[in-house]
Give the backbone structure.
Amino acid sequence: MRGSFSRLIKRGEKGEGKEFEFAEIAFRNLDFLDEFQFFEVVDSTNERAKFSKPFSLIFAEEQTSGRGRFGRKWVSRRGGLYFSIVLPLCSISKLTLVSALSVAESVKDSRIKWPNDVLLFGKKFCGILGEVFEDKAIVGIGINVENEVEFDFACNLRSFYRTSREEVFDAVTRNFAKNYVDLLAGKWSEVFERYAKLCETRGKRVRVLTPKGVIEGVAELCEDGAIVVNGEKVYSGDCIHLLN
């Protein structure tokens, strides 16, 4: 981006500044990580991730074109956490569930709305976007920490807890490392069980907007990452929790 500061930090490299503080956390918690890319301002960390090596983490203080699922804009003002992790190709549906679980396990009282929105007291504070590009799996995570939010359905963590971006980033990356290693080790059933316990969509009456139309009914979770509504398996769609 024009006039923005960026830095590529390799494992073992030392320095001063906010970029090295976050890099130190990432390298400490993510044993597999080779490099940390820091941007003061970037269009989208997921876009930059497409041209990065596996085992990279792309971190931005601000995104100008952040996006969520279905190409929706994700407002990414300063004060939030915006980063993407680049990994070798694997099941992107499982990876996004791993990411949602890792965030939910890091923030007290948080719950997951299928597939990967993380809520605090019914309001969304984290969005996750999983993508496959060539031979890479990319997962982008955006967390509202102390940044302003625009919408009534959203919140930031500082409205409820005294916390910092560094503390949240430390907890999320530690939990991600644990869950990702379990995924690679073939312990998906254990990972999914932890996800299911925190997913408030299970057993709820929902309305799901899919490319094929609208489905309404009680949602059950499938271990492959789908939900079943009225006997129909849904892997992707807008899920709305209904009151009754």
Remarks:
- Residues 211 and 237 are 7 Å apart (CA to CA).
- The chain has a mean pLDDT of 92.
- DSSP finds five helices and 13 strands in the chain.
